[in-house]
Design a protein that fits this description.
Blueprint: E1 16-21, E2 26-30, E3 36-39, E4 42-45, E5 57-59, E6 65-69, H1 73-78, H2 89-98, E7 106-110, H3 116-125, E8 130-135, H4 138-150, E9 157-161, E10 173-178, H5 187-193, E11 194-204, H6 207-217, E12 222-228, E13 254-260
Parallel strand pairs: 7-8, 7-10, 8-9, 10-11
Antiparallel strand pairs: 1-2, 1-6, 3-4, 5-6, 11-13, 12-13
Protein backbone atom coordinates (compact mmCIF):
# COMPACT_ATOMS: atom_id res chain seq x y z
CA UNK A 1 0.00 0.00 0.00
CA UNK A 2 1.47 3.32 -1.08
CA UNK A 3 2.19 5.81 1.70
CA UNK A 4 3.96 8.69 -0.05
CA UNK A 5 4.53 11.37 2.60
CA UNK A 6 4.88 14.05 -0.05
CA UNK A 7 1.27 13.85 -1.23
CA UNK A 8 -0.73 11.81 1.31
CA UNK A 9 -4.15 13.28 0.40
CA UNK A 10 -4.21 11.90 -3.14
CA UNK A 11 -4.77 8.34 -4.30
CA UNK A 12 -1.75 6.72 -5.89
CA UNK A 13 -0.88 3.59 -7.82
CA UNK A 14 -0.77 0.65 -5.38
CA UNK A 15 -3.17 2.20 -2.84
CA UNK A 16 -6.03 0.10 -1.50
CA UNK A 17 -9.23 2.08 -2.01
CA UNK A 18 -12.72 1.53 -0.62
CA UNK A 19 -15.38 2.37 -3.21
CA UNK A 20 -18.71 3.04 -1.49
CA UNK A 21 -21.95 3.60 -3.43
CA UNK A 22 -25.32 5.05 -2.45
CA UNK A 23 -26.63 1.51 -1.89
CA UNK A 24 -23.91 1.10 0.80
CA UNK A 25 -22.24 -1.68 -1.16
CA UNK A 26 -18.49 -1.54 -0.69
CA UNK A 27 -15.59 -2.72 -2.84
CA UNK A 28 -11.91 -2.90 -1.93
CA UNK A 29 -9.76 -2.22 -4.98
CA UNK A 30 -5.98 -1.97 -5.34
CA UNK A 31 -5.21 0.87 -7.74
CA UNK A 32 -3.30 -0.30 -10.79
CA UNK A 33 -2.39 1.93 -13.73
CA UNK A 34 -4.28 0.81 -16.84
CA UNK A 35 -6.73 -1.43 -14.93
CA UNK A 36 -10.49 -1.14 -14.79
CA UNK A 37 -13.05 -1.55 -11.96
CA UNK A 38 -16.29 -3.20 -13.14
CA UNK A 39 -19.67 -3.75 -11.48
CA UNK A 40 -23.28 -4.06 -12.62
CA UNK A 41 -23.37 -0.26 -12.08
CA UNK A 42 -20.81 0.28 -14.81
CA UNK A 43 -17.04 0.58 -15.04
CA UNK A 44 -14.41 3.10 -13.91
CA UNK A 45 -10.85 3.20 -15.18
CA UNK A 46 -8.29 3.12 -12.38
CA UNK A 47 -6.51 5.98 -14.14
CA UNK A 48 -9.61 8.11 -13.49
CA UNK A 49 -9.27 7.43 -9.74
CA UNK A 50 -5.49 7.65 -9.34
CA UNK A 51 -4.55 11.23 -8.50
CA UNK A 52 -7.94 12.07 -7.00
CA UNK A 53 -8.29 13.35 -3.45
CA UNK A 54 -9.36 10.85 -0.81
CA UNK A 55 -13.05 11.42 -0.11
CA UNK A 56 -13.83 12.54 -3.66
CA UNK A 57 -16.54 11.04 -5.87
CA UNK A 58 -16.15 9.36 -9.24
CA UNK A 59 -18.84 8.03 -11.57
CA UNK A 60 -19.06 4.92 -13.71
CA UNK A 61 -19.79 5.13 -17.42
CA UNK A 62 -23.45 4.55 -16.40
CA UNK A 63 -23.30 7.68 -14.18
CA UNK A 64 -23.38 5.79 -10.85
CA UNK A 65 -21.36 7.56 -8.14
CA UNK A 66 -18.80 5.96 -5.85
CA UNK A 67 -16.97 7.71 -3.02
CA UNK A 68 -13.24 6.97 -2.77
CA UNK A 69 -12.25 6.31 0.85
CA UNK A 70 -9.31 4.85 2.78
CA UNK A 71 -10.61 1.59 4.30
CA UNK A 72 -10.79 1.10 8.05
CA UNK A 73 -9.32 -1.98 9.70
CA UNK A 74 -12.87 -3.22 10.28
CA UNK A 75 -13.63 -2.90 6.57
CA UNK A 76 -10.40 -4.70 5.68
CA UNK A 77 -11.33 -7.63 7.92
CA UNK A 78 -14.87 -7.83 6.54
CA UNK A 79 -13.51 -7.59 3.01
CA UNK A 80 -11.13 -10.58 3.07
CA UNK A 81 -11.87 -13.34 0.60
CA UNK A 82 -13.08 -16.29 2.64
CA UNK A 83 -14.52 -19.77 2.44
CA UNK A 84 -15.19 -20.09 6.19
CA UNK A 85 -16.48 -17.72 8.86
CA UNK A 86 -13.96 -15.19 10.15
CA UNK A 87 -13.60 -13.77 13.64
CA UNK A 88 -15.95 -10.79 13.78
CA UNK A 89 -14.52 -7.27 14.13
CA UNK A 90 -16.48 -6.74 17.37
CA UNK A 91 -14.58 -9.65 18.91
CA UNK A 92 -11.22 -8.78 17.36
CA UNK A 93 -11.08 -5.36 19.03
CA UNK A 94 -11.74 -6.89 22.44
CA UNK A 95 -9.19 -9.67 21.85
CA UNK A 96 -6.51 -7.11 21.02
CA UNK A 97 -7.20 -5.13 24.19
CA UNK A 98 -7.56 -8.11 26.53
CA UNK A 99 -4.33 -9.71 25.28
CA UNK A 100 -2.29 -6.50 25.30
CA UNK A 101 -1.40 -6.76 21.61
CA UNK A 102 0.50 -3.81 20.18
CA UNK A 103 3.61 -2.74 18.26
CA UNK A 104 6.44 -5.21 18.83
CA UNK A 105 4.28 -8.07 20.18
CA UNK A 106 5.08 -11.67 19.23
CA UNK A 107 1.80 -13.53 18.77
CA UNK A 108 1.08 -17.19 18.05
CA UNK A 109 -2.27 -17.97 16.41
CA UNK A 110 -4.04 -21.19 15.35
CA UNK A 111 -6.15 -21.86 13.13
CA UNK A 112 -5.55 -19.28 10.53
CA UNK A 113 -8.72 -19.80 8.51
CA UNK A 114 -9.10 -17.07 5.89
CA UNK A 115 -6.80 -14.75 7.82
CA UNK A 116 -9.22 -12.09 9.10
CA UNK A 117 -7.83 -12.11 12.64
CA UNK A 118 -4.29 -12.59 11.28
CA UNK A 119 -4.70 -9.41 9.25
CA UNK A 120 -5.80 -7.39 12.27
CA UNK A 121 -3.03 -8.78 14.47
CA UNK A 122 -0.41 -8.02 11.84
CA UNK A 123 -1.60 -4.41 11.66
CA UNK A 124 -1.36 -4.13 15.44
CA UNK A 125 2.16 -5.53 15.89
CA UNK A 126 3.90 -3.70 13.03
CA UNK A 127 6.54 -2.44 12.48
CA UNK A 128 8.67 -4.62 14.78
CA UNK A 129 6.36 -7.41 15.98
CA UNK A 130 5.44 -10.68 14.30
CA UNK A 131 2.56 -13.15 13.96
CA UNK A 132 3.16 -16.91 13.83
CA UNK A 133 0.02 -18.56 12.53
CA UNK A 134 -0.75 -22.28 12.24
CA UNK A 135 -3.32 -24.02 10.05
CA UNK A 136 -3.71 -27.71 9.25
CA UNK A 137 -5.66 -27.20 5.99
CA UNK A 138 -3.38 -26.24 3.07
CA UNK A 139 -6.17 -24.63 1.04
CA UNK A 140 -7.09 -22.32 3.94
CA UNK A 141 -3.46 -21.37 4.50
CA UNK A 142 -3.13 -20.47 0.83
CA UNK A 143 -6.23 -18.26 1.01
CA UNK A 144 -4.90 -16.47 4.10
CA UNK A 145 -1.50 -15.91 2.50
CA UNK A 146 -3.14 -14.31 -0.55
CA UNK A 147 -5.31 -12.08 1.67
CA UNK A 148 -2.30 -10.84 3.63
CA UNK A 149 -0.18 -10.39 0.51
CA UNK A 150 -2.92 -8.30 -1.09
CA UNK A 151 -2.59 -5.84 1.79
CA UNK A 152 1.20 -5.91 1.90
CA UNK A 153 1.25 -7.52 5.36
CA UNK A 154 2.77 -10.91 4.55
CA UNK A 155 6.21 -9.90 5.85
CA UNK A 156 4.77 -9.63 9.37
CA UNK A 157 3.42 -13.19 9.36
CA UNK A 158 4.99 -16.64 9.37
CA UNK A 159 2.56 -19.25 8.01
CA UNK A 160 2.94 -22.86 9.13
CA UNK A 161 0.87 -25.82 7.97
CA UNK A 162 0.73 -28.18 10.93
CA UNK A 163 -1.53 -29.97 13.37
CA UNK A 164 -0.84 -28.00 16.56
CA UNK A 165 -0.97 -31.23 18.55
CA UNK A 166 2.67 -31.45 17.42
CA UNK A 167 3.38 -28.19 19.27
CA UNK A 168 4.52 -24.70 18.33
CA UNK A 169 8.04 -23.73 17.27
CA UNK A 170 7.93 -20.46 19.24
CA UNK A 171 8.88 -19.90 22.88
CA UNK A 172 8.40 -16.86 25.12
CA UNK A 173 5.55 -15.52 22.98
CA UNK A 174 3.59 -12.59 24.36
CA UNK A 175 0.24 -14.19 23.56
CA UNK A 176 -1.34 -17.27 22.03
CA UNK A 177 -4.84 -17.27 20.55
CA UNK A 178 -6.71 -20.42 19.48
CA UNK A 179 -9.61 -20.48 17.04
CA UNK A 180 -9.84 -24.26 16.76
CA UNK A 181 -12.55 -26.83 17.41
CA UNK A 182 -11.22 -28.20 20.72
CA UNK A 183 -8.80 -25.70 22.33
CA UNK A 184 -8.94 -27.75 25.53
CA UNK A 185 -6.74 -30.38 23.85
CA UNK A 186 -3.77 -28.05 23.26
CA UNK A 187 -3.11 -26.26 26.54
CA UNK A 188 0.21 -28.02 27.13
CA UNK A 189 1.43 -26.78 23.73
CA UNK A 190 0.08 -23.28 24.43
CA UNK A 191 1.81 -23.03 27.81
CA UNK A 192 5.13 -24.17 26.32
CA UNK A 193 4.94 -21.37 23.73
CA UNK A 194 4.10 -18.57 26.18
CA UNK A 195 6.39 -16.49 28.34
CA UNK A 196 5.63 -16.31 32.04
CA UNK A 197 2.52 -14.21 32.52
CA UNK A 198 1.77 -14.40 28.80
CA UNK A 199 -1.76 -14.04 27.51
CA UNK A 200 -3.96 -16.93 26.39
CA UNK A 201 -7.19 -16.52 24.45
CA UNK A 202 -9.63 -18.76 22.63
CA UNK A 203 -12.88 -18.47 20.70
CA UNK A 204 -15.50 -21.24 20.73
CA UNK A 205 -19.12 -21.21 19.52
CA UNK A 206 -20.88 -23.37 22.14
CA UNK A 207 -21.21 -23.48 25.92
CA UNK A 208 -20.17 -27.15 25.90
CA UNK A 209 -16.79 -26.14 24.51
CA UNK A 210 -16.49 -23.39 27.12
CA UNK A 211 -17.10 -25.89 29.90
CA UNK A 212 -14.56 -28.33 28.47
CA UNK A 213 -11.96 -25.56 28.16
CA UNK A 214 -12.55 -24.31 31.71
CA UNK A 215 -12.16 -27.83 33.08
CA UNK A 216 -8.92 -28.28 31.13
CA UNK A 217 -7.55 -24.89 32.24
CA UNK A 218 -8.04 -25.96 35.86
CA UNK A 219 -5.61 -28.84 35.21
CA UNK A 220 -2.90 -26.59 33.75
CA UNK A 221 -0.88 -23.65 35.10
CA UNK A 222 -3.18 -20.85 33.94
CA UNK A 223 -4.84 -18.16 36.01
CA UNK A 224 -6.99 -15.05 35.75
CA UNK A 225 -9.58 -16.97 33.73
CA UNK A 226 -12.40 -14.98 32.18
CA UNK A 227 -15.32 -15.86 29.88
CA UNK A 228 -17.00 -13.14 27.81
CA UNK A 229 -19.60 -12.75 25.08
CA UNK A 230 -20.01 -9.54 23.08
CA UNK A 231 -23.26 -8.37 21.50
CA UNK A 232 -23.33 -5.49 19.04
CA UNK A 233 -26.48 -3.52 18.18
CA UNK A 234 -26.36 -0.76 15.59
CA UNK A 235 -28.88 2.05 15.13
CA UNK A 236 -30.34 3.61 12.00
CA UNK A 237 -28.60 6.99 11.73
CA UNK A 238 -31.76 9.01 10.96
CA UNK A 239 -32.33 11.86 13.48
CA UNK A 240 -36.13 11.86 13.11
CA UNK A 241 -36.46 8.07 13.32
CA UNK A 242 -33.62 6.90 15.53
CA UNK A 243 -34.11 3.23 16.37
CA UNK A 244 -32.16 -0.04 16.34
CA UNK A 245 -31.43 -1.79 13.09
CA UNK A 246 -33.74 -4.69 12.29
CA UNK A 247 -30.80 -7.06 12.57
CA UNK A 248 -27.93 -7.18 15.04
CA UNK A 249 -24.67 -9.05 15.37
CA UNK A 250 -25.53 -11.09 18.44
CA UNK A 251 -23.87 -14.39 19.31
CA UNK A 252 -20.74 -15.05 17.32
CA UNK A 253 -18.76 -16.99 19.90
CA UNK A 254 -17.56 -17.15 23.49
CA UNK A 255 -14.20 -15.63 24.34
CA UNK A 256 -12.06 -17.27 27.03
CA UNK A 257 -8.95 -15.57 28.39
CA UNK A 258 -6.24 -16.51 30.86
CA UNK A 259 -2.60 -15.94 31.81
CA UNK A 260 0.26 -18.43 31.80
CA UNK A 261 1.60 -19.02 35.31
CA UNK A 262 4.65 -20.84 36.59
CA UNK A 263 3.85 -24.50 37.16
CA UNK A 264 4.17 -24.22 40.94
CA UNK A 265 1.82 -21.22 41.18
CA UNK A 266 -1.89 -21.53 41.85
CA UNK A 267 -4.09 -21.48 38.75
CA UNK A 268 -7.01 -19.95 40.64
CA UNK A 269 -5.92 -16.48 41.86
Amino acid sequence: MNNDKGNPARIQHGDLVLLSGHDRREFLVVMQTGAQFQTHRGYINHDDMIGNLWGSVVKTHLDYAYMLLPPSLEQLVRGVKRTTQIVYPKDIGYIIMKMNIGPGSRIVEAGTGSGGLTLALARMVMPHGHIYTYESRPEMLETAQKNLARLGLESYVTFTQRDIAEGFDERDADAVFLDVREPCDYLTQVHAALKGGGFFGALVPTTNQVSDLLAALAQHPFGFIQVDELLLRSYKPVPARLRPMDRMVAHTGYLIFGRALLAEESNDP
